[in-house]
Amino acid sequence: MSKRPNFDINAFITKKAKLDEKTSTAPQHSNAPNNIYLSTPVHPEQTLQIFLTQVRNAARKYNPAQTLPIFKPFCEVEARLGILKVPHSVPPRRVTSTGAKHVQGNLVKAFECSHQNPRCQMVSGVSRAHFSKWTASGLSELSPLAHALGVTSERGDLKQDLEEKEYVETVYSGYPNDRRVCYPGLHGSSHKSLVGKMESKEKLVTMDLTIPAANYDLRIALASETIVDPAVPNDPPPGWSVMRIKRRRSYTRRDRSIAWQIDVTEVTTTSRSTPTTTEVDFEIEVELQEKVLLQLINEENEENLKKMTHQLAQQLWWIMSQINPLVDALNVEETLRDHPDKYAVQLALAQCGALKKFIDARGTSRFESPIERPNDVPPAALSNIKFPGCMPVNFSRHNIDEIQRGANDAYYISEKTDGVRHFLVFTGKTAVLVDRAMKAKQPIPTKADQDPFSHIIDLIKPGTVFDGEVVMNRRGRIISNTNGESGYVRSQICCRSYYPTTSCAKELCQANRSGRIAVQCGRGTGYAMLP
User: Fold this and answer.
1) pLDDT tens digits along 214-268
2) pLDDT at position 19, please?
3) pTM of the model
């Protein structure tokens, strides 16, 4: 097993869910859009929890044995990605345009469209490009697939935390009553006879969620599985119309702390009527593990059932948000507000003006910091300037070793992440973000009376100016501090440089108060805002 510090993925998912609940829940009674498929905005995790309760009740009602407890699974819960489309539309179109949707000013991550008339159609599967980007690396490197199962560190072997199973299956479908015949492996590829099984599936409960800010929508269903014939001979019975070869990889956590299994499948389809023509599709599905499903169905205590469905819903939405990330759901401006401290704003803008004045003088005058004289009102002229930032000078790969292994004051090299250019000015009592329009901003705090920079203000010398970028991290990446503690990154500052040039990165990396953390990034420090 991994020797990394213990990390409770479920506690982290719960923490992220609380932040999402504050930022993405739309009122149910809000003015609904004209699109009928956007008439029911929902909080995805709460809706999934309700659905899982319905799953448990439907499974108990359908139970072939008619007695409890159940020891042998007879059904499955499966969520799959695809596109929900308007039925009979020409050309076929998604039930909603792609892009973040707001209702009464609230960002809505999902809309339930299971009960609209006409019922939307699900076209399962993802593009080849997304399939490769999200899943192709398997356990060879850190990827959205690994993130989805709670692995966030590039150190060590992913196989210590995750388990991968490969499976090939040949399926003949088209029989009456939705029956199909399944053979293990590539049927017909060798002279060895294979024994298949004929099975029948019936959907018991289904829910559709359209996720406009993501590339794909979600359908989750409870389906019964019945073995009609456990020993079908090598030659499939007549009546089939389509043959599918499924090459599947399944992923789970070894410690089973996440109850869901991720299946990624390449499906090659051949029609019996046109055997020379094949189609290749790519599917991503998430299935509730059999043992957990049995626990869910057998659970009698209502309080335990509520806790269980709550955790399962959080885990499922976490997985989907990593594999099918939201696009343009948030931007930098949505996480910032006008800075409420007018005097601090005046000092911060004057500090920027003093820096520009000093730079323009080219060393012929002494730098005078307005923040070092807080009792003096700074001249208005210092605030009436253009943004004094300059563009960085690029360097080549061969410069990296020279920079990292230079003098004692060597640079720390990290990946450059594009964001929105800001100065971060520490005034003593607070810190102010200054954008290129010389507007003073502050990250929106989680509590109304809270200063989001309060935990690091005492660590930074008043007058310090960070030159960096505010970056939105929509993937929910986890950043760990020096103590192995972790948190969800909602936004962060990636710094190019800072004034003064004394290093304070070590102190900042150890600051982890009020649920926030500061991290080193580039020359200087980066600031990560946590829930």
Assistant:
1) 999 999 999 999 999 999 999 999 999 999 999 999 999 999 999 999 999 999 9
2) 53
3) 0.64
Which residues, 6 or more positions from 198, have their beta carbon under 8 angstroms from its beta carbon?
Answer: 175, 179, 180, 181, 182, 227, 228, 229, 232, 237
Helix (H) or strand (E) holding 173: strand 162-173
What secondary structure letter does DSSP report for 423?
Answer: E
Measured between alpha carbons, how far is residue 12 from residues 24, 363, 530 in Å? Answer: 18, 50, 11
DSSP string of 187-234, one letter each residue: TTSSSS---EEEEEEEEEEEEEEE-TTBSSEEEEEEEEEEEEEEEE-S
Give the residue extent of every domain in the chain.
9-323, 332-529
Cα gap 374→352, rounded to integer Å: 15
Map 104-119 to HEC letters.
CCEEECEEECCCCCCC
Second-level CATH architecture of 9-323: Alpha-Beta Barrel (3.20)
The tokens for 44 are 């995805």
pLDDT the model gives residue 482: 31
- Tokens 């962060």 -> residue: 492
Regions in the chain scoring below 50 on pLDDT: 1-6, 23-32, 328-329, 474-531
What beta strand segments (E) does 373-499 contain?
Answer: 420-426, 431-435, 440-443, 465-472, 478-480, 486-488, 491-499
pLDDT of residue 141: 85
404: left (phi over 0), alpha (psi -120 to 50) or beta: alpha
Buried b (16+ CB within 10 A) or exposed e, 235-250: ebeeebeebbbbebbb
* Residues linked to residue 432 through DSSP beta bridges, in sequence order: 425
CB of 109 within 8 A of CB of 100? no
Strand partners, 225: 201
